[in-house]
Amino acid sequence: MSQDLCRCGNVSLLVYLLVILFGVSSWVDINGLWVELPILVQHLPEGWDLPSYMAVIIQIANVAPLVYTIASALYPHRVLEVPVSYLIITLGAISCFLMAFLWDATSIIAGQLHSTALLALQFCLALVDCTSSVAFLPFMSRLKPQYMPAYFIGEGFSGLIPSLVALGQGAGSMKCVEVPSSPSGNTSFIQENTSLYYTNYSINHTGTTTAKLNPFTNLTTISSFATYPIYEEPRFSVRAFFLFLMTLMICSLIAFVLLNYWSYCRRESVGQGDDEEETEHSQIHVFEEDSKPVELRSKTALFINSNDYDIAQVDLISKRDSRPALKNSEKSFKSQKGKITRSKFVLFLLLTVWLNALSNGVLPSIQTYACLPYGIQAYYLSINMASIANPVACIALIFLEMTSLTKTILTSVLGTVLTAYVVFTAVSSPSPPLVDHFSGSIICILSWTLLVFILTYSKVAIATVLRSKGKRGLLWVGAASQAGSLTGAFITFLLVNVYKIFTVGNPCI
């Protein structure tokens, strides 16, 4: 009776919660590292060059999902997703623990001081998160299709939870202060050396700004002041933040263990077969009233044992009643498999590549340039509202299913149009449209929130549709996601760090 209370229709709420918790481990550690950057850059020798190092390391770590995908293709009958998932979640938890104590350890490489411990451990975290896309999704093929949105809700929470914790920590909290400018009033020198004032100006206990000028600064050249931001002291330490991330990873590991071994969770599985080839020749016995076994082979056995559909509770009382039931089941199976042709499957994968290139590659790299000119409040509201929009989009898919390729293309086009506007504001920084008006901030926040919602909704809808292709289909979804993320991040990295077409706006102007 208590188990029935934990059910909502064909879904167990308890298993749903465990899947969400399992999905949190997909990107929570790397997302946590990104939101902690405003504190890290104040203490590490790379300063604000640290994000560019992190971006390169993440792309190098994509070698892990590539190796996994090749191994899955070479050994299609091996169950790789379960041991690999255990390995990467454990590695993520250990890396977060070590980072809590070693994040500020440095060493000299090629004559320059670098954060070697942080960067090495970040590579381990990147291995975890990049591989999760191609390991976690195939595991989800073991569960009923109704649990797919739960996984993506957890993936959305992997960005939301660290953001909220960092917000409570005060990471990136700024205060605008006046700093000296040149005698002519030209502040270009300060704009080019913004980090100088982040590290050489502080607020004492009375709230008064204290200038700590470098030895090369000539006091006689200062005749006016310009307003610039400085960071405030966080409410709790970086160590406590990384230990919190480790705790989340451990909770995800426990959830994964329960999903694998708890009999209550295993009842939400759709079968044991992983591939159609394995089940085509499988044999089941259906007992008639006279207890004589009847052998069922070929397509009928494929349907009953397939990991794509759960009909374990089909009750065949007699030979006369069983044949129509099996015939109808076979037709239902064929209709489900026939919904996605090869061309549609390829188009869905191409859309997955494109959507992930935008959401995981382009947008995170340009958000500072697109939002910061509108002010600190607009910047943080854009980040937090986008983090909330991600899991909300996954929940919305439960009530508003989208299986049509045409509708998916339309939502993708809408998301692309909004992305084009965001990129335009980033390129226009430090003077994007309506930068001096309150409406500009509102449009900035709404566009980012709606954009993340649409892109996430489209990605999850595609993964849910391709769930009908079983483990192989979801493996291709994960590979396409990583390929898109890699492509988008690489192109944006060149635009930001090589061609330098973006300029950061001053949030205090």
TrEMBL record:
Transmembrane segments: 12-30, 50-71, 83-103, 115-139, 151-171, 241-262, 345-366, 378-400, 409-428, 440-462, 474-496
Short name of any one Pfam family annotated for the protein: SLC52_ribofla_tr
Catalysed conversion reaction: riboflavin(in) = riboflavin(out)
GO cellular-component term (any): plasma membrane
GO molecular function: riboflavin transmembrane transporter activity
Membrane topology (UniProt): Multi-pass membrane protein
Localization annotation: Cell membrane
Keywords for this protein: Cell membrane, Membrane, Transmembrane, Transmembrane helix, Transport
Function field: Plasma membrane transporter mediating the uptake by cells of the water soluble vitamin B2/riboflavin that plays a key role in biochemical oxidation-reduction reactions of the carbohydrate, lipid, and amino acid metabolism.
Record family assignment: Belongs to the riboflavin transporter family.
Name of the protein this chain belongs to: Riboflavin transporter
Lineage: Eukaryota, Metazoa, Spiralia, Lophotrochozoa, Mollusca
